[in-house]
Amino acid sequence: MNRSAGSYVTTTTLGELVQAFVPHPLPPTEPALEPGSFIDLNRHAELALARLSGVSGLVPSVDRARPCPV
């Protein structure tokens, strides 16, 4: 399976040879993965975000920290 994202084209700019990357047009003709394969990945990502959101309230805020007078 060829999975290149594009090709390089050689051109000249101000008399200097340069290579420019030219990507293939979007969207690709065939999807890389079937849409059903993303359901489990999306569910795991949502659960990880929910856990992160839940524990973020336990972290002390830097804004509320005051320097202690000595």
**Rg measurement, Å:** 25 Å
Strand order within the widest sheet?
Answer: 1-2
Overall form: flat
Order of helices and strands: EEH
Mean pLDDT: 82
Residues in β-strands, percent = 15-25%
Unreliable spans: none
Largest sheet, in brief, is: 2 strands, antiparallel
Helix share of residues?
25-40%
Number of helices: 1
* Structural class by SSE content: alpha+beta
* Head-to-tail CA distance between termini: 68 Å
Number of strands: 2
Describe this structure in words.
The chain has 70 residues and is an alpha+beta fold. It has a domain at 32-57. 27% of the residues lie in helices and 23% in strands. It is built from one helix and two strands, in the order ββα. It has one helix at residues 38-56; strands at 6-13, 16-23. Strands 1-2 form a two-stranded antiparallel ribbon. The longest helix has 19 residues, at 38-56. The mean pLDDT is 82.
Secondary structure elements and pairings:
Layout: E1 6-13, E2 16-23, H1 38-56
Antiparallel strand pairs: 1-2
